[in-house]
Amino acid sequence: MTTRHCTSPIRSPLVMDSHSAFSFNLFNSINRFNPINPCLLALSFLSFAIVWPGRAQPWLDKISDSLFLQSPNGVYRVDFSGLFDLEGYYIDQRPPGLLFGDGDSFVTPRLSLFLDARAGKHLYSFVQVRFDDGFHARAPEPHERVDEYLLRYTPFDDPRLNLQVGKFATVVGNWVPRHLSWDNPFINAPLPYENILTVSDSSVPASPAQFLSRRGQPDIKEKWLTVVWGPDYASGASVFGSLDRWDYAAEIKNASLSSRSTAWDATDVGWDNPTVSGRLGFRPSTPWNLGVSASYGTYLQQPAQSSPAFPPGKRLGDFNQLTLAEDASYAWHHWQLWAEVFLSRFQVPNVGNADTLVYYLEAKYQFTPRLFGALRWNQQFYADINDGAGGQTPWDNNVWRIDTALGYRFTRHFQSKLQYSFTHQQGPLQQGEQLVAAQFTFKF
Fold first, then answer.
1. Is residue 41 part of a domain?
2. Measured on CA atoms in the order 23, 24, 25, 31, is the torsion positive or negative?
């Protein structure tokens, strides 16, 4: 297991200030465009992607292969790399999942810079810096962030044991190692990582009836949670390694799997209520990788305890999220298959246990060395809870979603994807039933 995401070295961080200024100007310019201009911008970039990569390939190869720092004996080395993504979204109603803002169509850029540093065979460090309009598109949070930073110590010359501290992605499941735009066959995440629930980390329902009334409301993304919030870059420490066909990983972090991105820094949420997670993997043969995961920890944040409805005599640590998961992946010739299933329980104040089961099945087929297609089926179910009037009813609306995507890798530096998704919730309220998205990625 590794959290290093990019392998191509790039420019020194000494020029990061110029990148920052460039990205801010670009974001501000795009955000000021009217609804027609983003379409024109997307067409311009598509034309650029088709015409320019072939001409620029030798020049980009030379830069990518030379932008690193290394000591004369090679013991110390620093590699720089990055991704620039330009994404466009057409939404027919309220934006689904972790897309924030109104239901209008929009274009959004993202610049991600990576630093990998090694000192001999046993010390490794990684940093990821981003400039965008929120960790998720149009999210109300800083537009420039250090999303990951870690220090890893490997005491032996083989991968049997690794010790790591910092802020990094969760060890749970099998989607996180391929969540960056260059590796993800789709533009968005599977349903477990982005479908908004009616469980809140800051708002406490006074009764089951009040909790159930949230089912008829549009998603309140600033207050409600997912089963796993994206890659969950929370802060903490982990131990992981590989022994023959077995992989293991365990972590302790400051926030739960469902914690939003504004809670991941240790300065945002302390260590009063840590979350413990782990995964055990088995590779029975070369094509297969199987795993089971578990996580337990408090999902409520400090504002919840200040709520008038918070039960007297209770603490935040009395209300936890318990998650069990299984994952599988398979690769054969042109096919790659992935699957994950999560069973998660939220202990909701004044309500009780709110259980949900969510899964997805994903397939990618490589038509040619450059052209690929992908199909993903997602579904989520909600258990019954007491409705406060002597009956039982599901605490949220069951939902299914189908995702289709087509991608083309022009060179080892340029990639584009087009995706169509259809989502349907049980009930009259729909959240972004149809989604069309395009993504252009430049890797350096």
1. yes
2. positive
